[in-house]
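[Automated response] Your request has been received and processed.

Submitted sequence:
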Amino acid sequence: MSLAVEEPVRSDSDLLRRLDPARLPRHIAVIMDGSGRWAGRHHRPRISGHLAGVEAVRATVEICARLHIPALTLYAFSAENWKRPQAEVNFLMRLLRRYLRSETAELNRQNIRLQAIGRIAALPQAVIGDLEQARAATAPNTGMVLTLALNYGARAEMVDACQALVDNALAGGAREVTEAALGAHLYTAQLPEPDLLIRTSGELRVSNFLLWQIAYAEIWVTPVLWPDFRAPHLLEAIADFQRRERRFGGLAPVPARAPQAGTAARPSAAISA
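Generated structure:
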């Protein structure tokens, strides 16, 4: 995990020049945190932080599409967020509907396909209707897949996947539980696993987000609050990602050492466990 220090960010062009196009993450997942604190720092109601956060969403989606990142997943509304005051929840649902209706044309312009994960059926019917319209309108697009995690919880996702395995077995399907079988029943089965998980606001936790999928994701945490998050911050996260050595539980390859003059290279002895 990397904790970014809050400092003046460089220009987009400077940061873009530092990136290796061949080593971009295939899937970036973002925990958008800090909107309430942003509002508090500015002595405004909490809802103003959520409103300001829409600009951060636009900036993040745009730069990921420009970089041709295949998949971007945003943690928009967790299964635990229903515990918030009803007025705030209602506002978030209205804001989501406004985003879906106002941004669909722009998503189409950028060739972005929209989808959603979570227990979508439990959302208000008006939200479901707008979500279905946006998904249908962007379905032919072939560029980046933008996934909104709505009424989402990773534990609930794994419960749903296990239930699907049970139902399949009862219907005469395979009875063996494997990682591949479980993964095929996750909400994200059609997406690559996240390479990079970004969390704003400095909190060092994953908050029940994509617990299965981020097993080997690189984690980058910034103290920047979500409404202040912009393209340079995202590019800094990707640059940090590219500086890391991803071993996936293995060891880094040891460079071959040339034999010293006057000696012959000898085969390595086997090492017993």
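Summary generated for your ticket: The chain has eight helices and seven strands. The helical segments are 12-18, 35-41, 46-66, 86-109, 125-138, 154-170, 179-183, 231-243.
If you did not submit this request, please reply to this message.
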